[in-house]
Amino acid sequence: MTEDLGTTQILLDLLNLDGEDQARTDEDIFIGHTPAQTRPRVFGGQVLAQSIMAATRTVEPSRAIHSLHGYFLRPGDPSQNITFGVQRLRDGRSFSARRVHAYQNGEPILSMITSFQEPAAGLEHHDPMPIDVPAPESLPTTADLVGHFDHPVAKEWAFERPFDVRHISEPIYLPSDSPNAADSAVWLRTTSSMPDDPALHRAALAYASDYLLLEPVLRAHGVPWIHRGLSIASLDHAMWWHRDFRVDEWLLYVLHSPSASSARGLGTGKFYNQAGELVATVAQEGMIRLPEFSEVS
């Protein structure tokens, strides 16, 4: 793979939290940092990934995160550090549960419960991977698509993300003539190699999962990301990890929106490795407001 150590190192740095188990009341306390950015808000995937790493540091290394359920409560300020408080809810024979709050200015910006599990044998099946999917190397990069635009957001998407994202469905960065459909798919992987720690790979996938989850909602109605007056924000996030994987190897991200109503849209996603195995499933509801709809919801 083409190595872009700079953007991957940014991802690794933000996943490397400050703090130790000794700094605690009824919570273990960790501190996370936000890399320099043009956006006025902290990227939701960052807060998810950092919360996962905080919770992971309070659990036995043999137990891997298998699910999370969280709510985005307030926008994060990228100029401030984020404090993560981890409450140890339960440690059973096979499972551990943790509650994580991400704080700024003494108020939670994310509230999340996670569950970890010891490896275990059991029943095995999964939804099949879509067939006739083009190879990722045959598709344009985000830099190819929007890197020539002289706009800070376009430059960030094209050159500053730690993931190489290759669209299978026609991108909707700009208005498109493609048919409206509540489905989308991309290949993605980190821009360079990652350490072997499986916890980093699971946290990094949560980070990337937040890139595109609401795109099928927009695509269903022919709304591009640059639609004037579009206001969009993640409300909640749920994720399940099924099998081990590497985020520095290509993963197929298949997305669908089953519903949109009341200025909210639901997006779901499935991640497959190149062997066709389903490695993770994700869902998110978001607020989506358009100026064409004058009522405040």
TrEMBL record:
The alphabetized list of GO BP terms reads: acyl-CoA metabolic process; fatty acid catabolic process
List, for all copies, the residue spans of the domain called Acyl-CoA thioesterase 2 C-terminal: 183-287
Catalytic activity reported: a fatty acyl-CoA + H2O = a fatty acid + CoA + H(+)
Task: Recite the UniProt keywords alphabetically.
Answer: Hydrolase, Lipid metabolism
What residue stretch is flagged as signal peptide?
Answer: none
Q: GO MF annotations for this entry?
A: fatty acyl-CoA hydrolase activity
Pfam families linked to this entry: 4HBT_3, Acyl_CoA_thio
Q: Could you give the subunit structure recorded for this chain?
A: Homotetramer.
What's the family? Belongs to the C/M/P thioester hydrolase family.
* The protein's name: Acyl-CoA thioesterase 2
Q: Which organism is it from?
A: Glutamicibacter arilaitensis
